[in-house]
Amino acid sequence: MVPVFLSKAVGLLLGRESRSLHLKAVGWATVLLGLTVFLGSWAVLVAERNAPHATITSYPRALWWSAETATTVGYGDFFPVTLWGRIVAVFSMCVGITTYGMVTAALATWFVGHEQKRRHRLAAGAEHAAREVRQETAQLHERFDRLEALLTDSGRRPPG
Questions:
Q1: Helix 59-70 vs helix 83-156: angle between axes, to the nearest 10 degrees?
Q2: The pTM of the whole model exceeds 0.85
Q3: Rounded Cα distance, 121 and 108, in Å
């Protein structure tokens, strides 16, 4: 049976068609990073458990190591000493770097998109205002032309 929070999280990620691509990318990247941290900690623990001079000897230590490796912090307090542990480390680093790159790119495009929409709204408002000014100017020109015509006509009439 699937835990309720997991089914709700998947529902949030897949649920709405109207949800922005940026939010979906960030959500999936977070899920991928979480899976990498949990599976990476398990894998490195399996690889390191009985190795001589191993610093990753329990699941809490492995979880801490995996989190700091995937987030590219790497304090150096725990590190793999076996070949398979190092392969897990490389995988965790690559997924972490890629995931944060995806999140950064998604946020950057979101900000750029909002700025473009704002500028488009400003340009549309300026165009609307310019159109109104042109219409008012055309109306004024028509009125001045009529006044000029009336003044010209009144100057040509024979005195009566």
A1: 40
A2: no
A3: 20
Contact 11, 2 (CB under 8 A): no
- pLDDT grade for 159, boundaries at 50, 70 and 90: low
Contact 66, 46 (CB under 8 A): no
37 and 67 Cβ atoms separated by less than 8 Å:
yes
Helix crossing, 4-14 with 21-48: angle to 10°? 140
- pLDDT of 98-144, one tens digit each? 988 888 888 888 889 889 999 999 999 999 999 999 999 999 999 99
Buried b (16+ CB within 10 A) or exposed e, 47-81: bbeebeebebeeeebbbbbbbbbbbeeeeeebbbe
- Distance of alpha carbon 43 from alpha carbon 14, whole angstroms: 28
Tokens representing 131?
């159109």
The closest alpha carbon to 96, from 32, 27, 38, belongs to 32
